[in-house]
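Design review, sub-item: ligand-bound model
Attendees: FS, YL, KQ
YL presented the inputs for the uracil complex:
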Amino acid sequence: MTTTATKQFILQQMGIDLWQQRRYVEQKSVETHQAPQQSMQESLQLLQQKVSKCTLCALHQSRTQTVFGVGNPNADLMIIGEAPGMNEDKQGKPFVGRAGQLLTQMLYAIGLQRESIFIANVLKCRPPRNRDPQADEVATCTPYLNQQIELIKPKLMVAVGRIAAHYLLQSTLSLSRLRKQVHQYGSQKTPLIVTYHPAYLLRSPVEKRRAYGDLLFIKQHLDSLS
Ligand code: URA
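KQ shared the predicted structure:
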């Protein structure tokens, strides 16, 4: 059953502000010591707080705020992009610009609600002028992503775009060579599928047909895991 703490955390991740009566807060502080499920969410919240104060690389100097990730902490599917852009940096949430709207539509096309999955980026801070992430920034930030993955334990990860795919798979192969197969990520060997970045699809709409094929492949694989 979904606990109050779970609901509260999911709403927070979806960016919905909560007004709470004191009685409710007291109830939460009791509940957070009960189930292991809640301690996972607490760990995720603690990680989010840690990330929000991170100064490990130079990107902290130019960011408005960190972009930890949003969505369902119990998600089966985790989408990973490369780094926040201007809108994400302003709002503190991943994929909220035009590319984000297309991502939402892409998910909808295979029957998935954005709120049911978890969305994050390799980097938690926006690179200046949206330049590509640098290898040292990725190396510094990846432990945060790995901790998110360890806590959320998605059944399937999807890397959107060449840059996220290259860093996650430690590969330099072209996107076309990396798509349409199931890779594995990390020590947990989490299945990982690669597809186009929605920003690329906005620039090259002709590729949407291929992207839809990828989405069907993702859905098929996700269904086979449940
Ligand atoms: N592009 C990304 O890779 N991530 C975002 O959050 C937004 C745009």
